[in-house]
TrEMBL record:
Naturally occurring in which organism (per UniProt): Salinactinospora qingdaonensis
Name of the protein in question: Uncharacterized protein
């Protein structure tokens, strides 16, 4: 006597068909997402700027920008009022986000005497005093 079978002879073919349909749908969605990603514009860079000062009057010898959104790099700076311990700086973040400034006070561009660090910042303009002789070596808002 033959037992009752729950599947019909066409059931394996139907399963394969559903698997193919699911795979094709997945590929179509992945292709659409990839096409959209390629056509979206790059976010505009976000300029940041400000003034920094080494509290000890040591010259500013470097400014490294560490961005939470990627795109870390060296800021451009220029001496203010003939005093190398006071500078204005500019940098373009790849996209909007928080960042930290690492400021070299004294030494050379490749060998900083003191590395100071700002808190995490998200404003476009920053004015800070960097306490390069303090044990914490932190930059704090000027003013």
């Amino acid at each position: 006597m033959r037992r009752f079978e729950s599947s019909t002879p066409d059931e394996p073919r139907r399963r394969r068909g559903r698997a193919w349909a699911t795979g094709l749908a997945f590929l179509a969605v992945a292709g659409a997402v990839a096409a959209l990603a390629l056509t979206l514009p790059e976010p505009a860079p976000v300029p940041i700027h400000g003034r920094l000062r080494c509290a000890s009057t040591a010259p500013v010898v470097g400014i490294w920008v560490e961005s939470s959104a990627g795109g870390n790099g060296w800021a451009q700076w220029r001496v203010r009022e003939g005093d190398p311990s006071q500078v204005s700086f500019d940098y373009e973040l790849r996209r909007r986000g928080a960042y930290t400034l690492h400021v070299g006070c004294g030494g050379t561009r490749t060998d900083w005497a003191a590395t100071t660090r700002s808190p995490v910042v998200s404003r476009a303009r920053v004015d800070m005093v960097c306490h390069d002789e303090h044990p914490d070596r932190r930059c704090v808002p000027a003013g």
